[in-house]
């Protein structure tokens, strides 16, 4: 049992790094603006610069990993991620930073989906929900720690955040997962098994949910900072609650899926994420005495964060079980759609936020919440129609 845990912990730490690397810039944008001389809207594009290549390459990265071996694929991904992070830390201009962010995203495409597949092959089927819930918790922690550490770094030098990611990636490069225990499907069959309804549902749901999740990382950070006149560290702490709530509830939510069904629990999680993302954009503007508006914002962010980990868990579960002979490929397809949604989020919602007069910028969070709500409705409809086993 000790050896088993020793093999698994680097996989969970790897689950932390991917979501951390993307939104780490969210609470550093004003400091980056002062250093690089670009607008907030331009600098917010460092998020899709990471996420678009990440999403695009994941359409093929998982299947290539099954073909060439998980160990070598993940090790190389971490090495490139390390070098790209160093380039971000040393970037002398906006253009160099954007290029380095593209390389970070491309490298991460060859780690995250492979880790999900490796975990699935390492645990008993009846514990898969809990295990993926823990992985989702680590992802939520990465997303939570990103604005917090970004804010702390920005109070000294925003470039320090990228030196941190370089160090973690370099360590993980020495601890890649084992190769798949299953015989690889050859030729066209490797891709054909991915054409199934369960994977399609998981992918659509993931894209919708992450339009909301990334808005909570980016727009909520701007919203809290502007409405309550907070500095980068305080903003990072508040937005970090989103991920910490997910960390605290991930295994519990995964256990509920094992017990009551992934579609029912997953659908409720998506609805909850959508509702409380919208609530976050409303309560900060209410005419309440003293610190109550901020208190209610924090509560709404925490509930949305707990729900977000549930959304991750259900789509990972649906994807990784949809094609047992190509788990990495199935997971990478779903994650490609998930992070395509995340990449579109700042493009859609940051301009909407900037176009409004604070505190009316909460409209962007209300709009973002509708996408996760729609994903929850989709899962419950799928359950009702019996298209996918609960």
Descriptive notes:
This protein has one domain (2-385): Growth Hormone, Chain: A. The longest helix has 32 residues, at 197-228. The chain is globular, with a radius of gyration of 20 Å. It is mainly α. It contains 16 helices and no strands. It has helices at 2-21, 29-36, 40-44, 46-68, 70-90, 94-108, 112-120, 128-154, 160-172, 189-192, 197-228, 232-260, 262-283, 292-320, 327-355, 362-385. Helix 4 (46-68) runs antiparallel to helix 5 and helix 5 (70-90) packs antiparallel against helix 6 (94-108). 60% of the residues are buried. Residues 1-6 have low confidence and may be disordered. This is MFS transporter. It is found in: Cell membrane. It is a multi-pass membrane protein. Its main location: membrane. It comes from Ammonicoccus fulvus.
CATH architecture: Up-down Bundle
Instruction: Describe the largest sheet.
Output: none
What is the molecular shape?
globular
| Rg computed from alpha carbons, rounded to a whole number of angstroms | 20 Å
Estimate the mean pLDDT confidence. 86
Amount of helix? over 70%
Determine the CATH superfamily.
MFS general substrate transporter like domains
Strand content: under 5%
Our measurement of the CA-to-CA distance between the termini, rounded to an integer number of angstroms, reads 30 Å
* Number of distinct beta strands: 0
Q: Please indicate the count of domains.
A: 1
Number of helices: 16
Low-confidence sequence ranges: 1-6
So what's the oligomer here? single chain
Helix and strand pattern: HHHHHHHHHHHHHHHH
């Amino acid at each position: 049992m000790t050896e088993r845990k020793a093999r698994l912990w680097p996989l969970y730490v790897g689950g932390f790094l991917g979501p951390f690397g993307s939104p780490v810039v969210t609470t550093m944008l004003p400091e980056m603006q002062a250093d690089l001389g670009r607008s907030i809207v331009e600098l917010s594009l460092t998020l899709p610069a990471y996420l678009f290549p990440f999403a695009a390459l994941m359409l093929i990265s998982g299947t290539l990993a099954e073909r060439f071996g998980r160990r070598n694929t993940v090790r190389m991904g971490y090495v490139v991620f390390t070098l790209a992070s160093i380039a971000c830390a040393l970037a002398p201009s906006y253009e160099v930073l954007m290029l380095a962010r593209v390389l970070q995203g491309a490298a991460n495409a060859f780690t995250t989906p492979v880790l999900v597949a490796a975990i699935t092959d390492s645990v008993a089927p009846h514990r898969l929900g809990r295990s993926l819930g823990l992985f989702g918790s680590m992802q939520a922690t990465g997303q939570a720690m990103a604005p917090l550490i970004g804010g702390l770094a920005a109070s000294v030098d925003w470039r320090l955040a990228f030196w941190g990611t370089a160090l973690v990636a370099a360590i993980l490069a020495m601890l890649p997962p084992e190769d798949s225990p299953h015989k690889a499907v050859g030729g066209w069959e490797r891709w054909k098994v991915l054409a199934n309804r369960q994977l399609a549902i998981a992918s659509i749901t993931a894209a919708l949910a992450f339009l909301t999740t990334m808005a909570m990382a980016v727009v909520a950070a701007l919203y809290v900072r502007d409405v309550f006149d907070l500095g980068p560290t305080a903003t990072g702490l508040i937005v970090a609650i989103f991920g910490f709530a997910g960390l605290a509830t991930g295994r519990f939510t995964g256990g509920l899926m094992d017990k009551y069904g992934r579609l029912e629990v997953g659908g409720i999680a998506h609805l909850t994420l959508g509702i409380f993302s919208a609530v976050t954009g409303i309560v900060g503007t209410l005419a309440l005495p003293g610190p109550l508006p901020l208190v209610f914002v924090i509560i709404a962010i925490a509930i949305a964060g707990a729900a977000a980990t549930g959304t991750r868990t259900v789509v990972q579960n649906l994807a990784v079980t949809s094609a047992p002979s190509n788990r990495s490929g199935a997971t990478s397809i779903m994650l490609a759609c998930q992070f395509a949604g995340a990449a579109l989020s700042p493009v859609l919602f940051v301009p909407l936020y900037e176009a409004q007069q604070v505190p009316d910028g909460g409209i962007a969070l209300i709009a973002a919440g509708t996408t996760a709500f729609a994903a929850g409705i989709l899962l419950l409809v799928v359950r009702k129609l019996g298209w996918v086993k609960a």
